[in-house]
Write a structure and sequence with these properties.
37% of the residues lie in helices and 17% in strands. α5 packs across α9. β1, α1 and β2 form a beta-alpha-beta unit. The chain has 313 residues and is α/β, with parallel strands linked by helices. Pfam families: AIG1 (PF04548). GO terms for molecular function: GTP binding.
Length: 313
C-alpha cells in the first residue's frame, strides 16, 4: 500500500495495558508476516489518554520483561502520543524527527517490498473470492426456496422463540438486544451473562422470545467448563416450552475460527440432542472486523468455518 515500501512501522501499544509473555509471542507471530529485519524500521508508539512523563513510561516498561525485549529488538526507539491532545502538533513533529533519524541511519532507505519473503497470494485470493460468490448464489437460492414455502401456505409462527449459545465475548447479549430492538441484556467489557436470561418484545407484529445463555471460553473443552455453566447452557432448551424454533450459534468474527474453537463448539453442542443442528443458524457478530470483505469470503478463508455446514442454513 506504500510502494516502493514504507519508511517506518509504528508498533502501537497502549500505556497501562498488560504485556505478558503470551502477548509477546502473539506479536512476534504476527510480525512473521514480514522478514525479521522489520524491527530495523520499527518505532514503538505508546498511546495514552493523559500526559505521560519519561519517568512514568520507563516505570511502565520495567514492569514487563517481554515488552523490554521487543523494545530492544526495535533499537530502543519509542515515542508517546497523548491521544486526548490532538491539537498538540509537537508530539507529531517529534515523531517525524525520530522517523527521519531512523531513515538516515538506513542511508535514506525504506522497507523494500521487493525483497519481502513470500508474495502476495493473488491467485489464492481470486480463488477464495470465486468460492465466496458460489456460496452467495447458493444462499440466495435457499432463501428463494424458503420464501416459496411461506408463500405456498407455510405460515410462520406468530410467537417466535429462539435461544442463543456461543463462546464468551462473542457478543451474544448485543445480538439479542439487536433482535429485540431494546436493551434487554446487560452489555459491558466483562462477562455479563452468568445465568440464562429471557426477554420478550414485539417486532414486525410478531411476539419474540429470546433466551441468552452463559458462554464458554472459546477454546475450552467441555471438561474445562464449570459444572454450573454447563447446567445453565443445558437448561436453556427447557425455557421455551415445548422447545425453541431456532438455536442461534453466535460466532464473533474478531477471532480466528480454528480447530480448538470448532472443537469447543462441537463439545458444548453435545449438551443438546443430536438434531439440534437441524434447528441451528450460525449468527456472525462483530462484522465491522471484516472491513470491505464479505462474510462469505471470511468463511472461505477459514477451514474451521466450513464445518458449520452441518447447520441447515
Amino acid at each position: 500500500m506504500c510502494p516502493p515500501g514504507p519508511h517506518a512501522f509504528l508498533l502501537v501499544i497502549r500505556v497501562g495495558s498488560p504485556f505478558p509473555e503470551i502477548f509477546k509471542r502473539s506479536l512476534e507471530e504476527h510480525l512473521q508476516l514480514f522478514p525479521k529485519r522489520v524491527f530495523d524500521h520499527t518505532i514503538l508508539l505508546f498511546t495514552a489518554k493523559s500526559p505521560v512523563t519519561d519517568k512514568m513510561l520507563e516505570k511502565e516498561i520495567k514492569r514487563w520483561p517481554a515488552l523490554q525485549e521487543i523494545l530492544k529488538q526495535c533499537g530502543n526507539r519509542k515515542h508517546v502520543f497523548n491521544i486526548s491532545e490532538r491539537e498538540d502538533r509537537t508530539q507529531v513533529t517529534t515523531l517525524f524527527k525520530k522517523i527521519e533519524e531512523m531513515v538516515a541511519k538506513r542511508a535514506g532507505g525504506h522497507y523494500s517490498i521487493d525483497s519481502c519473503d513470500g508474495h502476495f497470494p493473488s491467485e489464492e485470493m481470486k480463488a477464495m473470492v470465486g468460492r465466496a460468490s458460489e456460496r452467495i448464489a447458493k444462499v440466495q437460492t435457499r432463501r428463494r426456496e424458503l420464501k416459496a414455502l411461506i408463500e405456498g401456505g407455510k405460515t410462520p409462527p406468530k410467537h417466535l422463540k429462539m435461544v442463543m449459545v456461543g463462546a464468551q465475548w462473542s457478543a451474544k447479549s448485543s445480538a439479542g438486544n439487536t433482535i429485540l430492538r431494546k436493551q434487554a441484556f446487560a452489555v459491558d467489557h466483562n462477562r455479563t451473562t452468568k445465568i440464562c436470561e429471557m426477554s420478550h418484545s414485539m417486532v414486525a407484529d410478531r411476539l419474540l422470545t429470546v433466551v441468552d445463555s452463559p458462554g464458554w471460553y472459546y477454546n475450552n473443552t467441555l471438561h474445562d467448563t464449570c459444572k454450573m455453566d454447563k447446567a445453565e447452557i443445558e437448561n436453556i432448551m427447557h425455557l421455551c416450552p415445548p422447545g425453541p424454533h431456532a438455536v442461534l450459534l453466535v460466532v464473533g468474527l474478531a477471532s480466528a475460527f480454528n480447530a480448538s474453537y470448532w472443537q469447543a463448539v462441537q463439545q458444548h453442542m453435545r449438551l443438546f440432542k443430536d438434531e439440534v443442528w437441524n434447528h441451528t443458524i450460525v449468527l456472525f457478530t462483530r462484522g465491522d472486523w471484516l472491513g470491505r470483505k464479505t462474510v462469505e469470503e471470511r468463511i472461505e478463508s477459514e477451514e474451521g468455518l466450513h464445518c458449520t455446514r452441518k447447520c441447515s442454513s
